[in-house]
Write a structure and sequence with these properties.
The protein is mainly beta. It has 2 helices and 28 strands. The strands form 8 sheets. Strands 12, 13, 14, 15, 16, 17 and 18 form a 7-stranded antiparallel β-sheet that branches.
Length: 458
Amino acid sequence: RQEVDSVRIIWPAGIVQPEIGMASNKPCKIQELDRKGTSCPLLYGWNGERFGFITDFLGGCSIGYLTAPGQFNYPDTDEYILVRGEQLKPKNGLYSLRMNNQLEEVIFFDAVRMLAVDHPADTEIFPNERLLPAPPYPEFKIYSVKNPQLPVSAIGNKGQDILPLIAKIDRLYPEDFKLLPFKGYSEEHSITLDLGDTKGYKQILLLLHAWIDYADSTSNLAASQTNTKLTPPYLQVKNRKGEWQTVIEQMGFPAGLPKTMTVDLTDKFLTEDRSLRIVTSMRIYWDQILVDKSDGDSNVLITELEPAKADLGWRGFPQEYRPEGKQPLVYDYQKVDQIAPWKVHLGNYTRYGDVKPLLLSPDDMYVITRNGDEIELEFDASRLPKLTSGWKRDFLIYADGFGKDMDINSAKPETVGPLPFHKMSSYPYKSSKEAYPNGIEHQEYIEKYNTRSVRRQY
């Protein structure tokens, strides 16, 4: 034998890596892959021609995520995902969405609904969304903006002009900070913005379009062994002494793949100086930063729809690719692989078929999905009001649920259970008295729906 057929490696972080065609009887050097194993489910929508990739979502829903030795996160279980009108068109009277669990995780979908948001055509709407490291999480709110502008100036971490990099959404962003050897970590760095004249405006709103390379449980553990801390973004302005003073201790950060987060700066400035500084040690890539100085009035009409149809089935893994050969990843729904190098949590998943009753409200009765599963959603377009002349329609997709990865340093990384629930104090549970609801309704749910078992590791 001149070569080994295959070598399958499971690294300490839980990464599965197959290698083929390796020479026999010789030392071989194998480098651990830096791969994106977990993050969040992915959303696709029918745009009139095909199902297009929109974004990932439920970025804060992770349970069992190790933040420091013996410490775990508390999940933010819901999110409003912005879907522009051009990204979602009716087909045979129905708006069609696909929620795909594509990575090495189990996703517990608890509720889904659509909000059609009608607004004047010369305005844009954004949900009050961003990730925070701990509660309280942002309350639901829709911001209406009109003709947001670039800051007067934008200075990068090394004093250079970064205004051209943040001027438009083009996958070009400041990268002038040193990466540390722990996934998701970098040296502390900052960007400094001058917002210009804001006198007389009722609302000063930052619109930050960005993506983040998350830290995982293993990188948090490794960083703790060198006393390295991860600093989420905080925001500073100038005080009367001309010094930088923190006015937002937790500014929040983008929820995974590129999306726009909002930061309300109304009444945050301490002087007439409209400079601000954002500081962090997270790997955050700001693609566009705009400031809205409109009057802040939200002239919108909201119509809520529950799913007309929700079916769970097998889809596989839409292929990922990197435009221009760089991050972040994009997904092609039309090109699908049937296998992926992921492991699967052991336990019971929701059987395939109609799952609409499970998605009508957050009630701890989930659609439990493994990687490769997909929920097909349809919403009845005929139930929406006629669009007012001079207005346009965008959408917010509300989703609630939990997610759990297979990082070896996360809590309960090998199994579907124990099931999470909204009133739990932590995950893993803090005491033996905490348990998933055990009433008749929840027992019947488990017996009826969660009958698809995975009993061996892939």
